[in-house]
Amino acid sequence: MAEKKETKSNAATSKSEDNSGIGVVDALRIIAGLLLINCIASYFVTGDSITWNYRPWWIRPKVLAARLRSPVILADGDLFHYDGRNESLPIYLALNGTIYDVTAGRRIYAPGGPYNKFAGRDATRAYITGCFKEDSIADYRGAEWTFVPTDVPHFMDKFDEDLSETKRDYRYEMVGQALEEVDKTIAHWAKVFRGETGKDYFEVGYVQRNPGLMAMLPIRPLCAAAEKKRPKPKFDKTAKYRRAERAEQARRQQLEYAKLTNPALSEEAERAAAAGNEGHDEI
């Protein structure tokens, strides 16, 4: 009898311990409650999204349908038909060769809308320069100069041999940084047209074109507005270039002084200056 009571007591104690812990159902309830609170907070903060404006493609029916279909492949001339004039067709625009469906924004992309100039075409250059009337074309070669400081001479205005070594380095660094800005700008707009910022836009295909033909065209100069908004000069404000330029000037003065005072030593001075330049390159 005592043994049976003890067994019942142990069973009761074990059951009590099990009940005191959190079960699977309770854990699911807690997780569901936290998700609900998170969704409500997101809606109140963003105003229209319960996922903090994060819209992965797999929760968007239109994107899923587009991915199941074959990609839309259009030439630039065919893309013009999707500019919103024909209401039975979707509205497409292209960015850097990729076609996006922006039919959800028909009010602004259809004829009469503020962004109709982008519909039915690849206007990549305009997104970079901001010159929407003049630059609604796909060719954005040279558009990087929008981000190049005004004290950097264009390659067509001054060749490398016309510049000091320091100013050549400065030009290549500034143009390199400008090209990075171009990539960032295109990536930003691609994110918008993929619908990742809240708009119901999505990618559907690509433009079929011969890049070799575009390369044969002359590079378009910057429009007036883009030229006007170029960054201010940075050369004199950049310490490393100021120091390098002063050192280069000192070497040139040393060479000129050697030629004036002792022409026989001019060759030696030139060799010394060349050696100094090599040392500067290593630094």
> What is the assigned CATH homologous superfamily of the largest domain?
Cytochrome b5-like heme/steroid binding domain
Question: How many distinct folded domains?
Answer: 3
**Mean of pLDDT:** 82
CATH class of the largest domain: Alpha Beta
CATH topology of the largest domain: Flavocytochrome B2, Chain A, domain 1
Task: Give a quick account of the main beta sheet: strands, pairing sense, barrel closure.
Answer: 4 strands, mixed
Indicate the CATH architecture of the largest domain: Roll
Distance between the termini: 94 Å
Number of helices: 11
Secondary-structure-derived class: alpha+beta
The main sheet orders its strands as 1-4-3-2
Protein name: Cytochrome b5 heme-binding domain-containing protein
Keywords: Membrane, Transmembrane, Transmembrane helix
GO cellular component, one term: endomembrane system
Pfam family, one: Cyt-b5
